[in-house]
């Protein structure tokens, strides 16, 4: 008997999948538990719509990561900080400040995605990695100078 899966299940499959199962399993377990429905033409059409939506959702994060990586490529952020006699900044440049500066430029990045090992406390030019997606990292340049 062909059935359309109504709830995600590790053994059966994802919502919208169409599976062949035994009649007894479908009638005695899947239908009463509302885990599946008979594969009628209407249910098959609904399953096709659900599968299409699932495919679109999978594609969105990749497109967003590509767009973000294009925006971040070649970005240079400048910070002017007051420093003491030895050149140490009074207020260091942190992940949150970098994220805030990127936001001012119209690029929204969560501070936890910025892989800054420690706050910047000295003047100089620094390459700061930003995790765009799993496995994809873009490096931006942060320039900090004494005010």
Q: Mean of residue pLDDT?
A: 88
Strand content: 25-35%
Low-confidence stretches: none
- Annotated CATH homologous superfamily of the largest domain: Ribosomal protein L9, C-terminal domain
Placed side by side, the strands forming the largest sheet appear as 2-1-3
In CATH, the topology of the largest domain is named Ribosomal Protein L9, domain 2
Please characterize this protein's 3D structure:
Helices cover 34% and strands 31% of the residues. By secondary structure, it is an alpha+beta fold. The chain folds into 2 domains: 2-64, Ribosomal protein L9, N-terminal domain (Ribosomal Protein L9, domain 1, 3-Layer(aba) Sandwich), CATH 3.40.5.10; 73-146, Ribosomal protein L9, C-terminal domain (Ribosomal Protein L9, domain 2, Roll). The strands form 3 sheets. A 3-stranded antiparallel β-sheet has the order 2-1-3, covered by helices on one side. It has a 3-stranded mixed β-sheet with strand order 4-8-7. Strands 5-6 form a two-stranded antiparallel sheet. Strand 7 (124-133) and strand 8 (136-146) form a beta hairpin. The chain is rod-shaped.
Summarize the structure.
The chain has 147 residues and is of the alpha+beta class. It has helices at 23-30, 41-72, 95-104; strands at 2-5, 18-20, 36-38, 76-81, 88-93, 120-122, 124-133, 136-146.
List the helices and strands and how they pair.
Elements: E1 2-5, E2 18-20, H1 23-30, E3 36-38, H2 41-72, E4 76-81, E5 88-93, H3 95-104, E6 120-122, E7 124-133, E8 136-146
Parallel strand pairs: 4-8
Antiparallel strand pairs: 1-2, 1-3, 5-6, 7-8
């Amino acid at each position: 008997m062909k059935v359309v899966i109504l709830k995600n299940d590790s053994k059966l499959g994802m919502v919208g999948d169409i599976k062949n199962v035994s009649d007894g399993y479908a009638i005695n377990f899947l239908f009463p538990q509302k885990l599946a429905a008979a594969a009628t033409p209407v249910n098959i059409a609904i399953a096709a719509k659900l599968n299409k939506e699932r495919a679109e959702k999978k594609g969105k994060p990749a497109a967003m990561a590509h767009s973000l990586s294009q925006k971040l490529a070649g970005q240079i952020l400048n910070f002017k900080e007051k420093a003491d006699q030895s050149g140490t900044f009074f207020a260091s440049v942190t992940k949150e400040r970098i994220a805030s500066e990127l936001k001012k430029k119209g690029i929204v990045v969560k501070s936890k995605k910025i892989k800054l090992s420690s706050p910047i406390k000295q003047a100089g030019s620094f390459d700061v990695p930003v995790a765009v997606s799993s496995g994809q990292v873009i490096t931006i340049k942060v320039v900090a100078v004494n005010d």
